[in-house]
Specification:
Blueprint (H helix, E strand, L loop, with lengths): L7 E4 L3 H4 L13 E4 L6 E3 L6 E4 L2 E4 L5 E7 L1 H7 L1 E3 L4 E3 L8 E6 L9 E3 L4 E9 L30
Antiparallel strand pairs: 1-5, 2-11, 3-10, 4-9, 6-8, 6-11, 7-9
């Protein structure tokens, strides 16, 4: 059995400890809550460009068999339309800089009021996960199918 992953969380914003950082939402939660380290409320208009919001710390992973991923909080995305501007953020084991959350209001223009993010608000979550780097063989051109899959093209499985 391997030893558990050890990660250093380097605090860059002293307000985090007052906001309860670090914490998971429950004992079984996969994601570590990320808070918006803002000095004032930030309004994100629908379909405006994504904004980088500091998370106030750096996650020092170092173990090349691990990475961290930043995901949106499901309630904010589903209910309010706040999602990540880059879909999912990947934090490599050798990255030691500050974590930033790319926040975007996915709502159509004119359909909703701006989403207001307040200082200390939980806006995303950080999930640590193992990774693998497979041995890759590069070949050229189409080859024979060994499974029969892919013959009908993208999205064809199960289509009559």
């Amino acid at each position: 059995m391997s030893l558990p992953l050890r990660v250093e969380l380097r605090l860059l914003d002293p307000r985090l400890t007052g906001w309860g950082f670090p914490r998971w939402g429950s004992e079984a939660a996969a994601g570590l809550d990320l808070q918006a380290c803002l000095d004032a409320p930030l309004a994100l208009a629908p379909q405006a460009p994504a904004v980088l919001i500091p998370a106030g710390f750096a996650a020092i992973i170092r173990d090349p068999d691990w990475c961290a991923m930043i995901y949106p909080r499901s309630g904010l995305g589903h209910r309010d339309g706040l999602v990540l501007g880059n879909g999912v953020g990947v934090i490599d084991a050798d990255y030691e800089g500050p974590l930033m959350v790319s926040a975007w209001n996915r709502n159509p223009p004119g359909s909703a009021a701006p989403i207001t993010i307040r200082p200390g608000e939980r806006i995303a979550q950080l999930v640590f996960t193992r990774i693998t780097r497979p041995h890759v063989t590069v070949t050229e051109g189409p080859g024979p199918s060994t499974t029969g899959r892919g013959q009908g093209g993208f999205g064809s499985t199960g289509v009559e």
